[in-house]
Amino acid sequence: MSAEWKPAAESLATDLRAVFRDRFLSLVAYGPQLEGDATAPLTCLALVTSLTVDDLHACAKHAPRWARAHVATPLILPEHEFRRSLDAFPLEYGEIIRAHARVVGNNPFDGIAIAREDLRRACETQIKSHLVHLREGYIESGGSPGAVAELVAASAPAFTALLRNVARLNGVTTSDRTDATRQGARGAGLPEHVVDDVAALEQKPGHAGVDAARLFPDYLAAIEQLARAVDAWHPLDSPRAESRGSLGANLSDSLRSLGAAD
User: Fold this and answer.
1) How far apart are CA 240 and CA 74, in angstroms?
2) For residue 150, with 0-12 CB atoms within 10 Å meaning exposed, 13-18 middle and 19 or more buried, which class applies?
């Protein structure tokens, strides 16, 4: 994890401390820049004891300078609001928890946990929305190879994020972006070559050596498979799980049932 982001993060902390003074609790950095994407803006989460309109006005005065420094508008939340909204945003907060670095203050994630069922439900919603989007996008493309290729490439970041969320659902805690993506795919039994090709499109859209248009059928099938796996997932302590908590185990049973039906 590169430390080139630190000066900008520390400058942001100084600005926030000037606004909130003793109400400023902590600041953590997270996101693509920490994971090696130097072109991405620096993203941060700041926790405070309270947040008023006057605070927003004071922060707004800093916004132009933050933008010039390639720092995204920080996510500023009262601590109590953050803790009470973990069930509402389990994917978003889970991604921050997965890979973050403390800038100042205590680690805001100590002693908190995202409920697995909240995560499963959010994963199901995200995956099935992605699936609907791809199907509609293909129809709207008119089948044009160029338009289909653009659709696949544009959706690649969302797909890899889906896999990292699924990895968390299976209890994977690695902070490494690539490892988390691959473990999520393996847990759901997705074809490795499809995952590798889509991940390559995320890193180098249009220059990945991947025929995105020809990839579409396999890509769509992988997402359909992912949706089935998440839909069938049950936690280890559930009576329905019968000692199976992983997506891979649930998916294997589903596929065997389909085979028997055939």
Assistant:
1) 42
2) middle
Tokens of 245: 């908590």
Q: Measure the CA angle with vertex 150, ends 144 and 152; round to 5°.
A: 100
In three-state secondary structure terms, 262 is coil
Is the whole-model pTM more than 0.70? yes
Domains observed in the chain: 6-105 (3.30.460), 116-261 (1.20.120)
Contact assessment for residue 25 and residue 36, using Cβ atoms and an 8 Å cutoff: no
How far apart, in whole angstroms, are the C-alpha atoms of residue 140 and residue 135?
A: 9
CB 184 within 8 A of CB 233: no
**Backbone CA torsion sign across 169, 183, 196, 221:** negative
Residue range 80-91, pLDDT digits in tens: 999 999 999 999
- Judged by phi (left if over 0) then psi (alpha if -120 to 50, else beta), residue 143 lies in left
- Give 116: exposed, middle or buried? Use CB within 10 Å, 0-12, 13-18, 19+: buried
Q: List pLDDT tens digits, range 203-248.
A: 876 666 789 999 999 999 999 999 999 988 876 544 443 333 444 4
Residue 121 main-chain phi, psi, to 5 deg: -65, -40
Q: Please state the rounded mean pLDDT for residues 190-194.
A: 95
